[in-house]
Amino acid sequence: MLYLPVTETPDQLSRWLKLGAAALLFQVLFPAPVVAMGPPASLDEELTQALDLEPDLENGKALFEMCASCHGPDAQGSRDGVYPQLAGQHRSVIIKQISDFRLGNRANPDMLPFTETDVFGGSQGISDVASYLASLPMTPEPGVGPEDTFARGEKVYEDNCSVCHDDGAEGFDDFFFPKIQGQHYGYTLRELKKMKEGERKNVYHGMLRRIQKLSMEDLEAVANYVSRLPPTGGEDELSE
Ligand code: HEC
Ligand code: HEC
Asked: Which of 66, 80, 114, 139 best tests ligand 1's pocket when mutated (most atoms within 8 Å of CB)?
């Protein structure tokens, strides 16, 4: 808490990162749920192990077949946002979300059965699927929001979100901060509403504090803004 004002702007955040202050930052950003430098305390042993295992992408691809009926053959989700795009998401984020469904921090009856240990055959399988998903190109045509709220969304994003999700909304794999660029508008907006209303419980308090102050119009605008940001981390960048 003491150091938080120092890291409130993206510039300062990246300077801290460059200075190698990652360890300190990690503690500052995750005071409660994370013990010092380790992964989030909510991760069970199996998931913590998965973080460190050498992935087998071929096995990840084979395991993903059971996810494809909902998340799509290329893991790009559905444009209406019912199913999120998983392609290009950070490996750490995918692993943490599996944990959050298991623990009931996120409630979704469709998704829950696919987070059970048996489904993956243990931590190696989880590591494999997470890395496979992270390696996939994102869709060039995500579902987006209304064009006229883009400028408002950009301002909301810069004032409230870029400090943690980065300028291009790419997030940070090392900190379990999700990539939210090019994600389907409908999904992002739904999750923001769920977080604001306390229905999705795995939210870092620094984010919650900000979205609680924002109006529904601001949330719609910012969800639109990030949906229109081109993928920067994958192989398949958005063309003009
Ligand atoms: C029956 C449909 C269905 C299947 C099959 C399914 N999912 Fe999901 N998944 C969902 C839905 C719906 C959501 C969004 C839940 C929400 O809104 O909270 C989701 C969300 C997720 C998320 C969170 C994404 C994020 O950005 O936070 C991950 C990770 C995920 N699924 C991975 C998988 C994996 C891996 C498999 C296969 C082992 C799988 N899913 C199979 C329906 C499904
Ligand atoms: C203090 C850091 C911080 C700030 C500020 C912040 N976030 Fe987040 N955000 C996070 C973290 C950490 C998560 C992952 C939570 C979890 O583990 O589920 C997250 C998750 C999300 C998700 C869910 C992604 C998914 O795939 O399910 C969305 C959407 C999101 N943030 C959007 C925003 C927006 C929009 C803003 C600005 C209004 C914002 N965040 C501000 C840290 C932050």
From this structure: 114
